[in-house]
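Changelog note: in this version the structure field was regenerated for every chain. One regenerated record is shown below for reference.
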Amino acid sequence: MLMRTDPFRELDRLTQQLMGPGTWSRPSAMPMDAYREGDEYVVAFDLPGVTADAIDIDVERNMLTVKAERRPVTKADNVQMELSERPLGVFSRQIVLADTLDTEHIQADYDAGVLTLRIPIAERAKPRKISIGVGSGHKEISG
């Protein structure tokens, strides 16, 4: 149901480590998991240290785009950074959604640094029983 659009993800990750933080024009990738749970797909993105108001989710046709920005923590004037390994900047991920998913009813939750999207399977994509009428020639479709 989900199609990957990022065949060079590992190469991108290595390149981004060398080139520094992501920007709005060149965002870094964010790790994700995707799985089916009953009648919906669940996609979870790791975004530790990102505030909920710094996350942007868009769906256009069947393209889901998630962008987030991890901003630097404001420090006092007398603080000297000794080590900084946590990436800052902009992170983005695009996923092509199958047309069997109901993009009108996506639910988004953000808890403990994990953005979880629940995308229901469209009713038209669910299996249904078709009964055949005898003699009258009509067919009845039930959900």
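Spot check on this record: The CA atoms of residues 62 and 97 lie 5 Å apart. The helical segments are 9-19.
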